[in-house]
Specification:
About 15% of the residues lie in helices and about 30% in strands. It is α/β, with parallel strands linked by helices. The strands form 2 sheets. A 4-stranded mixed sheet has the order 2-1-4-6, with no helix packed on it. Strand 7 and strand 8 form a beta hairpin. It is elongated. It binds copper (II) ion (CU). Pfam families: Copper-bind. It comes from Candidatus Zambryskibacteria bacterium RIFCSPLOWO2_12_FULL_39_16.
């Protein structure tokens, strides 16, 4: 009888020990906070978000954004690097799509139509920089939207 209880106790201890070890092994590594000292060099050039170069075999797609007198629709879109957005003007005014900030468009200089198209016109741009790119109609900067490139 005592032998039986001893064996059961040993089994329970072994199981508890195994569970304890398993639990400890599965704990995720702790993330260490690295303190960064801010750069005191004010002459350093402002860098735009770095582009991640990924060779992507998936098919590139084109998304259509319509510009009406109510603004851009859909206002915010998320696409993949290499995808194209076609902006179609269905408004009563001119459309000149450009990245922020107005009027210099320096956030993503290539993302700038540099011309105006009237109703019925369109402009297509292929995004090759990963990031979140706010844009506006340069002819009516109150109309804006955002293209997020993953
Ligand atoms: Cu502008």
């Amino acid at each position: 009888m005592n032998k039986k209880i001893t064996i059961i106790l040993i089994i329970v201890v072994v199981i508890l020990g195994a569970l304890f070890l398993f639990k400890n092994n599965s704990v995720a590594p702790t993330v260490q906070n690295v303190e960064e000292t801010p750069s005191t060099d004010n002459t350093a050039p402002v860098t735009s978000p770095t582009a991640t170069i990924i060779i992507d075999a998936t098919t590139k797609s084109t998304v259509v954004v319509t510009y009406t007198d109510s603004g851009f629709s859909p206002q915010n879109i998320t696409i993949k690097k290499g995808d194209t957005v076609t902006f179609v003007n269905k408004s009563s005014i001119g459309m000149w799509v450009a990245s922020g900030p107005h009027p210099t468009h320096t956030n993503y200089p290539a993302f700038d139509e540099k011309a105006t198209v009237s109703n019925g016109g369109s402009w297509s741009f292929t995004f090759d920089l990963v990031g979140s790119w706010g844009y506006h109609n340069h002819k009516n900067s109150a109309a804006f939207g955002k293209v997020i490139i993953e």
